[in-house]
Amino acid sequence: MQTATFYIVSADGPQANQDGFAQYLLFLTRHFVQQNAKVYLHCNDKEHAEQIAEHFWQVLPENFMAHNLVGEGPKYATNIEIGYTGVKHTWNRQLVINLADNQTTFARTFAQVIDFVPCDEKAKQLARERYKVYRQAGYQLQTIDIVYP
């Protein structure tokens, strides 16, 4: 069964700002890669994808995770692929982490979708719309509050 999990970002949590969210994204991606998942990070556009890829480079060497932008690097070579609407991810991805504002048409090709409910009201509304799309597509839905110390 296909599942979609929405992580709820708290307004007073460290993930509410761009750097904190980027750190959480690295943590979450590492969690799935350690389970041998082939992860696709879906971004708004090429510039957004490049920004996310840059975050993956800005870690300590012992925390580095091999990744590539769609169309770059050897095909099927990494467990983490970063792309955006208009480019085709490799076929062997089981899980998508959606970082795009309102892109859900790709979701039907993945067994598992990870999405986020940001604290900004406009972004929350877009997340609600994505939630509806996943529900209509038959995904089993769940929400998780991001817990922080």
UniProtKB/TrEMBL annotation:
One of its GO terms (molecular function) is DNA-directed DNA polymerase activity. Keywords: Nucleotidyltransferase, Transferase. Pfam families: DNA_pol3_chi (PF04364). Its EC number is 2.7.7.7. Signal peptide: none annotated. PANTHER family: DNA POLYMERASE III SUBUNIT CHI (PTHR38767:SF1). It comes from the Bacteria. The keyword Transferase applies. The lineage of its organism: Bacteria, Pseudomonadati, Pseudomonadota, Gammaproteobacteria, Vibrionales. This is DNA polymerase III subunit chi.
